[in-house]
Design goal:
272 residues; mainly alpha; Fic-like fold; 65% helix; globular
Length: 272
């Protein structure tokens, strides 16, 4: 019961922040600029969690210059991984009317791994794994059973979206944990899980959830702990806190920038 109260309190805090965030951060951007800002942040951190060495600034330059960018201590494989992430993001987040389905999942995986999976695995984009999956010290459940269960996860998540009785962040977190432990693809499971968790949030006009690279160890531990104890509140709490932290940080950044650009009398004060 205490966990339930705690999550309700966090949701209340999140909703209060969300009003302020939409007004003073998201609402200040042009729609296209906000889309690209989120696209770059999300791609940089989601790919970094999987070992990609591109920083946010590197990712921004890649977005601006594409393959014309001169790569310094970066591989072409890393560049393609991020470029494909851009394409998948742009497809998914301009198709918010689409329901969650196995067909959509395979389509997005085909875009997300289009130029990389053939070089790292002997698979085609959009193809399910044919063997047992493991990551680090985690061995995932039987892959054939997991693949059979995947359509049901997509259906039940879509049903929860349509019924709209559970907060979107909780639906997103539950989907994320379930999908990660199905682990149906030979590569890209983490990236596509984060993509679809945000697809769920975007359907409700909630901010993109950015799990930063410096949260990687905590993120993995939360997934393991949630699975070990069959406790979805652990995953939901992580998602809510991560979203709150992002909004708080960006609101503080806006406040600081505005304060720094003002002086007494309302004129700009430049100090040399």
């Amino acid at each position: 019961m205490s966990n339930e109260v705690s999550i309700n309190q966090l949701i209340s805090k999140y909703e209060d922040l969300l009003i302020n965030y939409k007004k003073n951060v998201a609402g200040k951007f042009a729609a296209d600029d906000l889309f690209e800002y989120n696209e770059i942040l999300f791609a940089a951190h989601s790919c970094a969690i999987e070992g990609n060495s591109f920083s946010v600034n590197d990712t921004k330059e890649l977005k601006e210059h594409g393959l014309k960018l001169k790569l310094h201590n970066k591989s072409m494989l890393e560049a393609y991984e991020i470029l494909d992430h851009f394409k998948a993001y742009e497809f998914v987040f301009t198709q918010l009317h689409l329901p969650l389905s196995e067909e959509l999942l395979i389509q997005v995986h085909s875009i997300l791994l289009e130029n990389t999976i053939r070089y790292t695995k002997n698979y085609e984009p959009g193809e399910y794994t044919k063997t047992q999956m493991a990551a680090g010290d985690t061995i995932f459940p039987d892959h054939e059973t997991s693949i059979k269960n995947l359509p049901q996860l997509m259906f039940q998540t879509q049903q929860a979206i349509e019924e709209n009785k559970i907060h979107p962040l909780i639906v997103s977190a539950k989907f994320h944990k379930y999908f990660i432990y199905l682990h149906p693809f030979p590569d890209g499971n983490g990236r596509i899980a984060r993509m679809f968790s945000n697809f769920i949030l975007a359907k409700f006009n909630h901010p993109i959830l950015i799990i930063t690279n410096d949260q990687k160890e905590l993120y993995i531990e939360v997934l393991k702990f949630s699975h070990k104890h069959n406790d979805m509140d652990i995953m939901a709490t992580f998602f809510i806190n991560t979203s709150i932290k992002r909004m708080e940080n960006e609101l503080q950044e806006i406040d600081f920038t505005n304060s720094a650009s003002r002086s007494k009398g309302g004129t700009l004060g430049f100090v040399f």
